[in-house]
């Protein structure tokens, strides 16, 4: 598909969503300028060799009857330039769920979309899936609530370890590269960044710190950037001696954060040796992510 065909599919889906969710309480377009630019891009007769200048983002708000209580759930959606050939970025928020349960719901939703909706517009499918499955996760919340009341009154939020695998069309800009290094160290995240084309960033550590890092990075100006894969591990499992089985540091696969270069080559020195990247990932015990990034098995 071309950028124009992707943009046409995106605009058609937004118009369908607008007709189905006509009020601001149901659908909120958080960037009207991006929508106007998308429409102008589709309606322009000029050839489209590059993507639209900005990405449409919107919120879908639903009030569902769960456990005899009205529950609000919000789906935050953003279109990558190549959607629907790649999946949209969809984040689900629901105040009736703990952070870990929201993470579990998110993981199941992503798996469903990957298996059933690759290459097709799928926001409505995501909304329907959440409607059909939210009750299951709320039931889990209700089931575990009495147990939590018996715990000591420390009332600390559940800790979650996260590892985000971020993909960018390219990372050249020295200022962005500096931000990535400084923010990761500020937030005590480990991992690495690989500049060039494509650009890869991996951060790992407390989920809240990973989310803060992503919230800063994604608002910079990019041709394309997305979370290609994420890993979330709740740290609420207890051993026989009532100590947490795992800790944040024990789950890290990287020591500190570094900018990694793998034999830069090409006219601008902006391409890395992917074979060396695979070996690097393999040494860290995460070579499976190579296929997620590039669609092929490394060697």
Automatic annotation (TrEMBL):
Residues 12-137 form the RWD domain. It comes from the Eukaryota. SUPFAM superfamilies: UBC-like. InterPro entries: Phi-like, Prp3_C, RWD_dom, RWDD2A-B_C, UBQ-conjugating_enzyme/RWD. Pfam families: Prp3_C (PF06544), RWD (PF05773). This is RWD domain containing 2B. It comes from Amphiprion percula (Orange clownfish).
